[in-house]
Write a structure and sequence with these properties.
- Helix 1 packs parallel to helix 2.
- The protein is built from 18 helices and 23 strands.
- With about 550 residues, it is of the alpha/beta class.
- An eight-stranded parallel beta barrel has the order 8-9-16-19-20-21-22-23, surrounded by five helices.
- Bound molecules: zinc ion.
- Zinc ion (ZN) binds near residues 271, 311, 313, 349 and 355.
Length: about 550
């Protein structure tokens, strides 16, 4: 009798055929690795075995009696880029791929073939009785991804999390065969990346004097200092951790809006350096305004969009941002660098003498063209250093920078328009891939609003119907965004991403024809057991909704 009659792999592989029998994986099993880089995939597997089941396998160059052969070689046998084949029979397991990424994805599938123990039984085993062997069902799998960009975003500006959790988040990305981590590092409520040239960015901009209590606009302010940042050493550690998992970390440095924290550190970045920051203390009552300690500029303590943005009229602003980017580029090898570009009010620019002079000097029509000038100038800087700029869809307004990739968040219209102009696009529409929205109706957890249940995420199609077929090639993929106004702790982040991230992984990896929601729900039973093994908190609302 086989361990399971049906396979429970998420995302669903392109083709998977169950064979008869099982492979018994035990401490006597060796991992055969002949290629130096394949040791990364083997290490990931061993670390997983050790963490969950309490044992590891020896690495060898030769096949023993039972073995897992992990091999990357240009055979051309794998059907598409970053694909793999996986064969399990009674005496061994072979994972083959043309790229190391492919081999790594084969390992992720193997992990999901391991006997689906219950969390409780593993915990008891961790407390004394160790697992001595695991059954792996015999299978033949051929698999490859549908989209090349399979991303998860995390905002650490509103709330930040320890490096240990950032790594856990990256592991979740890896376990779902996703390959981009978009790290939102700066915002109005905190600047989170150490920049040696401008130390006040973290000394001042890394901390706020309080946070609103409850749902925006809040009932009061907790008046507790909150903050922190990631040192450059920590960032290097995270980037390496991600690279070992074939995940690219795309840093985001917000400009010209969402700049309150940077402006609190260096007020000359504002159009009006002596204009005091307004912090609405209890906006629902509409009256109280906080202004502490005589500081002219403050890091924001409430959520939303703020008028105090980087001055586009002064060259010093651009020199500052170039200095920041120089250090960012040295830390992040990613080809893509995200510069935000969203939600930047033009209120100050319309009355700022520097901005108005710049509009005249550059022959621009209005403040929207000034925003376009801003982004295009930053793009030139990045392109000269061999990098590609990504911006939110507002960068379409006033003219798109020539080589920019557009992240479409206000629905899909921005993505459709950008693809029409032959620009690459990453789809991140609020509905359904903003994971800060609720996943259950009436749940008693504070969220930013909106309703993106598991089913809607699963049904998402990144290539919109309205897009002419010839433009579909410009859709690189999609990404879920995790804005953290209402996620103070890592457990809340996990609860918001799981299980929706599992659904998204299937949207991005599996073929359209292989998508099947009832079957996904069937496989979710095994997947929730895995969440248990990972000791992750997750929402079980989708299961309740079906009762
Ligand atoms: Zn200005």
């Amino acid at each position: 009798m086989s361990v399971s009659q049906q396979l429970n792999i998420i995302p669903q592989p392109v083709s998977a055929k169950k064979l008869t029998g099982d492979f018994k994986l035990s401490k006597a099993t060796t991992i055969v690795v002949r290629d130096e880089e394949d040791k990364r995939a083997a290490k990931f597997f061993n670390d997983y075995l050790n963490e969950i089941y309490g044992f590891m396998l020896p690495l060898s160059k030769d096949e023993g009696k039972d073995f897992i052969r992990v091999i990357t070689k240009k055979t051309g046998k794998t059907p598409a880029k970053d694909g793999y084949t996986l064969l399990v029979w009674k005496e061994g397991i072979i994972i083959e791929a043309d790229t190391h990424e492919g081999t790594f994805y084969g390992i992720q599938t193997l992990i999901q073939l391991l006997e689906p123990y219950d969390f409780k039984s593993i915990i008891s085993k961790k407390n004394g009785i160790s697992v001595s062997s695991l059954l792996v069902p015999a299978v033949s799998i051929q698999d490859y991804p549908r989209f090349s960009y399979r991303g998860m975003h995390l905002d650490v500006g509103r709330h930040l999390y320890p490096v240990t959790f950032i790594k856990k988040f990256i592991d979740y990305i890896a376990l779902h065969k996703m390959n981009f981590f978009h790290w939102h590092l700066t915002d109005d409520q905190g600047w989170r990346i150490e920049i040696k040239k401008y130390p006040k960015l973290t000394e001042v901009g890394g901390y706020r004097n309080g946070t609103i209590v409850g749902h925006f606009p809040g009932t009061s302010n907790d008046n507790q200092r909150y903050g922190g940042f990631y040192t450059q050493a920590e960032i290097k550690e995270v980037v390496k951790y991600a690279t070992d998992r074939y995940i690219t970390v795309v840093p985001e440095i917000e400009m010209p809006g969402h700049a309150s924290a940077a402006i609190a550190a260096y007020p000359w970045l504002s159009c009006f350096p002596t204009k005091k920051t307004v912090i609405k203390q209890n906006g629902s009552k509409g009256s109280a305004v906080k202004q502490s300690g005589g500081d002219v500029k403050l890091v924001q303590e409430t959520w939303g969009v703020f008028d105090d943005v980087f001055c586009a009229g002064k060259d010093s602003t651009f020199h500052f941002l170039e200095g920041v980017l120089d250090e960012v580029l040295a830390l992040f090898p990613s080809k893509y660098i995200h510069v935000g570009g969203d939600e930047s009010p033009k209120t100050h620019w319309k009355i700022c003498p520097h901005c108005q002079a710049k509009i005249k000097r550059q022959g621009l029509k209005d403040v929207h063209q000034l925003q376009s000038y801003f982004i295009q100038r930053m793009e030139k800087y990045l392109n000269a250093k061999g990098r590609i700029l990504i911006g939110w869809d507002e960068i379409l307004e006033g003219g798109l920078a020539p080589n920019a990739v557009v992240m479409s968040w206000r629905g899909e219209r921005g993505g459709i328009a950008a693809a029409k102009e032959k620009h690459y696009v990453i789809m991140t529409p609020q509905q359904p891939v903003y994971f800060d929205h609720s996943q259950i109706k009436g749940e008693d957890s504070i969220t930013i609003g909106g309703y993106n249940p598991l089913e809607k995420v699963y049904a998402y199609e990144p290539v919109p119907k309205e897009m002419p077929p010839e433009n579909a090639k410009y859709v690189m993929g999609a990404q879920a965004n995790v804005w953290t106004e209402y996620m103070k702790y890592p457990t809340k982040v996990e609860y918001m991403i799981l299980p929706r991230m599992s659904a998204l992984s299937e949207v991005l990896w599996s073929t359209k024809g292989n998508k099947n929601y009832p079957d996904f729900l069937r496989r979710m039973k095994a997947q929730t057991k895995r969440y248990g093994l990972w000791q992750a908190s997750y929402s079980n609302g989708f299961a309740k909704a079906r009762l």
